[in-house]
Amino acid sequence: MVLFHKILAPAEGERGIKMNRRRLVLTKVVLEQENTAAALLIKAEDGWAPLEFLSTSAKRTGDLNLIIEPGETMTFKARQESFFGPTTMANGVAVGGQVRLHMYGNLEEVVNEMEPDAKKRRVAVGSQGA
Q1: Which residue, of 16, 86, 93, 95, is most buried by count of CB atoms within 10 Å of its CB?
Q2: Which phi and psi angles does 115 have, rounded to 5°?
Q3: Angle made by CA atoms 9, 103, 47, in degrees to the nearest 5
Q4: Residue 50, class by beta-carbon neighbours within 10 Å (0-12 exposed, 13-18 middle, 19+ buried)?
Q5: In angstroms, how far is CA 10 from the centroid of its own chain?
Q6: How far apart are alpha carbons 83 and 114 in whole angstroms?
Q7: Cβ neighbours of residue 127 under 8 Å, at least 6 residues apart?
Q8: d(CA 25, CA 105)
Q9: Under a CB-based contact definition with an 8 Å cutoff, are residues 14 and 76 in contact?
Q10: Contacting residues for 75 by C-beta, under 8 A, at least 6 apart
Q11: What is the pLDDT of residues 111-127, one digit of tens each?
């Protein structure tokens, strides 16, 4: 099993995650910087649907349980939200303020039993013609 990590920021717009040979299980989203709030959105048929609302003053980490199968693509977007919590200061200056979401998950190998048989058939057909 391999760890998956992707960073989303509102300035980057939408980001797609496409799986080719592996299955991705998204497990967690974390808000990085202080003095921020954000929404994690997923692209649906009729627009964008919210998955998690995060804030450094209330809920900084969100739990996900999304599975992206091989051949599927999911598109996500981070949106900055209004922050109403107490402002964290360092030397008289507010720290952070830039929304960045970190998405974590696990990449799993998918066992496909059809592929080896198809390959054997191609090899057998090719050797018969020789």
Answers
A1: 95
A2: -60, -45
A3: 65
A4: exposed
A5: 14
A6: 51
A7: none
A8: 5
A9: yes
A10: 14, 15, 16, 17, 42, 43
A11: 765 555 555 555 555 55
